[in-house]
Design brief:
By secondary structure, the chain is mainly beta. The chain is built from 1 helix and 24 strands. The protein folds into 2 domains: 148 residues, Immunoglobulin-like (Sandwich), CATH 2.60.40; 161 residues. It is rod-shaped, with a radius of gyration of 44 Å. The protein starts with a helix and ends with a strand.
């Protein structure tokens, strides 16, 4: 009997201990906050004492339920400035991948699906009205001039005044927590220099052209391949110009008209700055040209007409032949020369030396 009572009492004691231990285990269970993942803060500048935008991202394993908030806290030394709701964009993705974000509405007060924004001297808090963020979603918070979903934001956050490593904390009533390390430098700018040399190329395809024997009964056109000249218009030679000058180039021509080598007083009259068509039996010396391949290149009067000629230069005065208004690749200028004489034009050998000059306008 004694043994039965002893056993019974021991069983009762064991039951009591088990209940107490079980009750104790129930009471010591704790709810631990989950750790955020994929945390980052991309700044527009990491230079000390400089205004900077922030793009903060993290993945919340627990999510956010209605009425909960997320708080971003910056250490002392950061100046958050006067942050308006238009300078904050709050968005979530449809997965733990931080891409394909959908912006939420933000305002000063949380209401329905609109998130409320509140600030202190060192923190930014976003509070849900009825909005919910499911578990394992990526959250993105843009702060400053990069916030554009509701209006063009204003950059107000100023980096610490000296180089340092700061720990920005993410917490709030939603329960998940995390730390973002940001390094601030004395200067984040790498100065680079490079030089593009000025360039101007100028070519003349040939420097000898021929009219041959002139006659009052027909016009003659200069040729670089036919020493007798041509009776029909032909391209005598070409000029080639290219430059990287910001303000383009200018081509000029200077030289006396065809002049007798026996008597310099005898000349074939230049057409002049006013254009004229080829007129048989009348003393004329003139040029016309066409251009191809260049960018913003134009021929100048009196050389730019399709069927008329002119020559506005003299032995001492230059005449503008072509103009480019900016950098250009190869511009090819094709020249045609015409000469007519009268029946009384003095006999002799006539020649002229024309100087073409290209000037780059840097």
């Amino acid at each position: 009997m004694y043994i039965k009572n002893f056993v019974s009492k021991m069983a009762s004691l064991a039951t009591i201990i088990a209940l107490v231990v079980g009750a104790s285990i129930v009471h010591v269970e704790l709810a631990y906050a989950a750790a955020l993942s994929n945390l980052s803060d991309t700044l527009s500048s990491v230079k000390a004492n400089t205004l900077s935008d922030h793009t903060i991202q993290f993945v919340t394993p627990s999510g956010v339920t209605a009425g909960q908030n997320i708080s971003i806290t910056f250490p002392v030394g950061w100046n958050l400035g006067n942050l308006s709701t238009t300078s904050v964009d709050f968005a979530t993705s449809t997965s733990a991948t931080c891409s394909g974000f959908t912006d939420a509405l933000v305002s000063n007060t949380a209401s329905g699906l609109t998130w409320g924004i509140s600030t202190t001297s060192q923190s930014l808090t976003l509070t849900s009205g009825t909005a919910v963020i499911p578990a394992n979603r990526c959250v993105q918070i843009e702060i400053g001039g990069n916030a554009t979903s509701q209006a063009n934001g204003t950059t107000t956050y100023t980096n610490p005044s000296t180089a340092t490593t700061s720990l920005i904390s993410v917490a709030g009533s939603f329960g998940d927590t995390g730390i973002i390390s940001v390094t601030i430098l004395t200067d984040d700018t790498v100065a680079m220099t490079g030089t593009v040399n000025q360039s101007l190329t100028f070519t003349i395809s040939t420097t000898t052209i021929y009219f041959g024997t002139l006659s009052s009964s027909g016009a003659k056109f200069a040729s670089s391949t036919n020493a007798s000249g041509d009776s029909t218009e032909t391209i005598a030679h070409t000029l080639g110009v290219s430059t990287n000058a910001s303000y383009g180039f200018t081509v000029t021509v200077r030289g006396q008209t065809l002049t007798s080598q026996q008597n310099s007083l005898n000349t074939i009259s230049a057409i002049g700055a006013s254009i004229a068509s080829s007129t048989v039996g009348t003393e004329q010396f003139g040029i016309r040209a066409t251009e191809s391949g260049g960018t913003n290149v134009s021929l100048s009067s009196p050389y730019s007409f399709s069927t008329s000629y002119g020559y506005g230069a003299t032995a001492t005065t230059s005449s503008t032949f072509a103009v480019g208004t900016g950098a250009t690749g190869l511009s090819t200028i094709s020249l045609r020369y015409v000469t007519n004489i009268a029946a009384i034009t003095e006999a002799g050998t006539y020649a002229a030396n024309l100087n073409y000059v290209a000037t780059a306008n840097f």
